[in-house]
Amino acid sequence: xxxxxxxxxxxxxxxxxxxxxxxxxxxxLQRRMLELGVPxxxxxxxxxxxxxxxxQRLQRSLLISVTRFFRDxxxxxxxxxxxxxxxxxxxxxxxxxxxxxxxxxxEEAYTLAVLVAEALGDRLPRCPVRLFATDIDADAIAHARRxxxxxxxxxxxxxxxxxxxxxxxxxxxxxxxxxxxxxxxAQHDLLSQPPFVNLDVLSCRNVLIYxxxxxxxxxxxxxxxxxxxxxxxxxxxxxxxxxxxELFQSTDGHVxxxxxxxxxxxxxxxxxxxxxxxxxxxxxxxARPEPAASLLASERRFHQHLLQRHALPxxxxxxQGQVQHLWGDVDRFLKLEGGKxxxxxxxxxxxxxxxxxxxxLHLATTAAPSELASMPVALPCLASPSYLLSTKxxxx
Length: 396
Ligand SMILES: C[S@@+](CC[C@H](N)C(=O)[O-])C[C@H]1O[C@@H](n2cnc3c(N)ncnc32)[C@H](O)[C@@H]1O
Hints:
Elements: H1 2-13, H2 22-36, H3 41-50, H4 52-61, H5 73-89, E1 96-101, H6 107-120, E2 129-135, H7 138-146, H8 159-165, E3 166-169, E4 172-175, H9 177-180, E5 183-187, E6 199-204, H10 213-226, E7 227-235, E8 248-250, E9 257-260, H11 282-286, H12 297-310, E10 314-317, E11 323-327, H13 345-348, H14 351-364, E12 371-373, E13 389-391
Parallel strand pairs: 1-2, 1-6, 2-5, 6-7
Antiparallel strand pairs: 3-4, 7-9, 8-9, 10-11, 12-13
The site of S-adenosylmethionine has 23 residues, from loops.
C-alpha cells in the first residue's frame, strides 16, 4: 500500500518520496490521516486518488523547514576559523564557491554569507563569491529571496555582526545588500538533480537525517565529487558521514565538520554522480524522426524556421569542437573577443560556461553516453541555474 502512495506522489509532484526515512513517512501519513479523519490506509489511498492537492500536502509534510540564523553557534565559530584559513591562502581573483543544499528559508545561507564577509573584510569587493543556496521547497526559496525575517530571528546573534551585516527596521530584519548579493537561491532536488561543483564549502545541515541510508550514501558521494580537494563539508549535529570515512576526514570530534579526502569519487561517470543520461532508452532511439535529408525542401525550411525561432539556444560543433552552426538566442552565451580568431565553442562561450563546455566536449569524445547534461551553471542572464545539454550525432 505504501508503494502505491509513493507512486501517486511521484506522479503528482515528480518527487521520489521513497528515499525519505520510512519512520518519517509513516509518521506524516498518520498525521495526514488523523487531520482528514480517514480511518485506514485503504481509505487514505482512495482519498489521494480523488484529491491532487492532498498529494502535494503529503509531499510537503516531509519537508521539515525548521531553521535559524547561527543555529549551533559553536559550529559557526569553528567554520569561521576554517574560512579564515581558506581565504588566507586564496588569491582574490580565484574567488570562493559555497553551496547550502536544503537551505529552507535562507537563514543558514545568510549565516555563511556573514562569515565569508567577516573572513574577507576589505577584500570582499575584489573577491568573487558565489554562495548557492537551494531547497526542494519553492515557497521556502521564495521566502529566502524576499529575505525579511521577524526581529526575534536575530536573538542570540552577536550585536556587532547584526550592526555590520543586517538592516533592522519596523518591518523586521533583512540581510544587508552586500550579504544578499553573495547568495544565489534556486529550487533544487538533492535526490535527483546534479550538484554544484568546484566548491570550497558545502554546508548540508539537518537534511540527510530525513533520508534513508542508501540515499545518504549516494548524496555524500556526490558531495565528494562536488568539493575541491581538501574542501570542507559541514553536516548537522546529529548527522555523520557514516561508512564513507574513506571519502571525508573528521576535523573535530564534536562539530560535524569534515575535510574532503583526495581520493577518486566513487562511480564518477555514472548517472548517479550527477551526469544524467537523457533519452538513451531503446524506445527513444526508435522514436527519432527521419533524417533531415529525406524531408521535402519546404518541410526543411519550416523546420529551420521553428528551430531558429523556438529552439533552446543551440550550437553544432564538429569533432574538434569548432562551431559549425548556431540556432536560437545564443548571443547571451557567446562572445567574440579581439585577438587571434578562435571559433572553437570553448573559445567563443562566455568565461562562466567554459569549464562545463570543455567537460561536456571531453566526455562527448570519450566513452560517455551520447546524451549528457552538465552540472548547473549560474549566469546573470539566467533566472535560475541551468544545464548545458549535449547530444552526439554521427554524420554519413
Ligand atoms: C530541517 S530543514 C534544514 C534547514 C537548514 N539546513 C538548517 O539546518 O537550519 C530541512 C530542509 O531540507 C529540505 N529538503 C528536504 N528534502 C529535500 C530534497 N530532496 N532536496 C532538497 N532539499 C530538501 C526541506 O525542504 C527543508 O527546508
